[in-house]
Write a structure and sequence with these properties.
single chain, 296 residues, alpha/beta, 3-stranded mixed beta sheet, 10 helices, 29% helix, 19% strand
Length: 296
């Protein structure tokens, strides 16, 4: 529901154009010299699951040929492709440090609450097909109120399957401090027609200093377009704030969007479209064509 692709997990976001990069982008626009100097490729999928990319396998083969020592990390909800495809990818990556990050937020009875429309049987078959090749996997578990009780069982499963486990706090909640109380607006989830379905609470919802706010249909973001104006949004609304970015001076990272634009990070890649209050960001990157490489 927090993914930029769909509004609260429901209707397709109007900014999504269903474009993807093919192997020709890496061969002809980035080129072998550039690709051979990249040490780590992270396929994360800001606007969709990267495994849905039709030429992902071919892209990885090309990049691996450019630099046999580079590492690949591929993030997925596990619901795409066939067992045959995952076996082929596993055989390509086994014996290397490369790995797949499986975003699985629970078990069969809970994963679908946050991972909308992911079919458990298909996910489980794909994970095992890849894992059986001996390639490396990481189970990344976002913790919520509804799945926190399953963490111990999932750790046991990972140990049995020789899969690394990582738990993370989920984002997407509206949080503000008021008189020593942490007020939390839950994540709203919608169906494919844009109708409100249910809410998701954070894993710390039962703490004494936490108050889960009731949903507000009048100011519901994805049905009215009105943004709840928490204090931290005010400077963004004015378009005046200092940027403290981890990219640039501190790293040599570079984010490539699905249309080929070269940007500092995925937060900017998504934030250009998803932060209607963020005028400064939108102004800086309004001429998108300037960030897409050309053969010239």
């Amino acid at each position: 529901p927090v993914c930029v692709r769909r509004l609260g997990g429901g209707k397709l976001n109007s900014i999504i154009q269903n474009v993807e990069l093919g192997v020709d982008y890496f061969e002809n626009l980035l080129g072998e010299e550039f690709c051979s100097n990249v040490q780590h490729w992270q396929f994360c999928g800001t606007k969709g699951d990267p495994v849905a990319c039709s030429e992902l396998y071919e892209i990885i083969v090309y990049l691996k040929n450019c630099n046999p020592d580079c590492i690949f990390s591929i993030h997925t909800n596990g619901g795409f492709r066939s067992e045959k495809w995952w076996t082929k990818l596993g055989r390509l990556l086994r014996g290397t440090p490369s790995f797949v990050v499986w975003g699985i937020d629970g078990l069969e009875d809970t994963n679908h609450i946050h991972r909308r429309n992911v079919k458990w049987n298909k996910l489980w078959a794909n994970l095992n097909a890849f894992n059986n090749t001996g390639a490396h996997s990481l189970w990344q578990f976002l913790v919520f109120e509804h799945n926190r009780h399953q963490m111990s069982e999932i750790k046991d499963i990972c140990k049995k399957l020789n899969i690394r486990f990582e738990s993370k706090d989920a984002f997407g909640f509206g949080i503000q401090e008021k008189d020593g109380i942490k007020e939390v607006y839950p994540i709203e989830v919608f169906d494919k027609d844009g109708n409100f379905d249910y809410t998701i609470n954070p894993h710390f919802s039962n703490q004494e200093n936490v108050k889960i706010l009731p949903i507000d249909p009048v100011r519901r973001k994805f049905t009215t377009g009105i943004i709840r104006e928490y204090p931290e949004y005010m400077n963004m609304k004015k378009g005046q704030y200092d940027i403290d970015c981890k990219i640039g001076e501190n790293t040599s990272d570079l984010y490539i969007d699905c249309d080929g634009a070269l940007l500092p990070c995925c937060f900017i890649g998504a934030g250009i479209y998803t932060s209607p209050l963020d005028r400064q960001l939108q102004s800086q990157f309004k001429n998108r064509e300037e960030f897409i490489p050309t053969e010239n």
